[in-house]
């Protein structure tokens, strides 16, 4: 599904190399987790994959189902099936969340050469998805992200994911405010959306999240590289011993 080879990235504005050769392959239907010390480049990886400005790829490749991602505009990546949670963190007063979500949905359909859906059809679709996920869709009537609580942002994120039906979902749970309730929302949402044709990359420093979303593979990222990969037990090892032991091991 996702194949990243020797990906090297620096900041556009500064001569600072952040990713120093990342290798990662996520198979269809798999859930991979990335853990690692602060500043190791986890968020940078997700930003570069989604096409955010400010980064320069200096080497390597990243593809989705064999198609080069790095050459595409962010919208094209989304249409190809890539989803980055919090790709729309901006508050947009005056624009209803539902309208915004429908615009994204229709933009993706259009990019794939499919017909747009009407407001009424879309409402029906969203209600069904929300019901499946036991999410209250009321917040969709409010302006995009304006005054959303942490929990509402998480609900919104999961609902966006359910509606847009991406193939490759990247969740960067960078938010230190991920409390027990938010963690449950995220893990229930991901588990409900797990399927054969959909893969997840979950970036987290909360081992506990991985008690609920049991990953197929856990990767440890440090200093701009994936330094170790293993099964779910690797997350427990990190929880118990911290990163220091692992770092000694790989150096
Ligand atoms: P992580 O998510 O693993 O904590 P990040 O990807 O956020 O790590 O950051 C990796 C490194 O790159 C850090 O040293 C961070 O300070 C730096 N960095 C990332 N983006 C920027 C930026 N836009 N400007 C300056 N430094 C940045
Ligand atoms: Mg950080
Ligand atoms: Mg981060």
UniProtKB/TrEMBL annotation:
Q: What single Pfam family name could you report for this chain, choosing any that match? A: ABC_tran
Q: ABC transporter domain: which residues?
A: 2-248
Per its UniProt record, what PROSITE patterns does this chain match?
A: ABC_TRANSPORTER_1 (PS00211), ABC_TRANSPORTER_2 (PS50893)
Key words, A-Z: ATP-binding, Nucleotide-binding
- The superkingdom of the source organism is Bacteria
SUPFAM superfamilies per record = P-loop containing nucleoside triphosphate hydrolases
As one GO molecular function, the record gives:
ATP hydrolysis activity
Q: Which family does it belong to?
A: Belongs to the ABC transporter superfamily. Ycf16 family.
Task: Fetch the PANTHER family from UniProt.
Answer: ABC TRANSPORTER I FAMILY MEMBER 6, CHLOROPLASTIC
The name under which this protein is listed is Iron-sulfur cluster assembly ATPase protein SufC
Query: Which species does this protein come from?
Result: Limimaricola hongkongensis DSM 17492
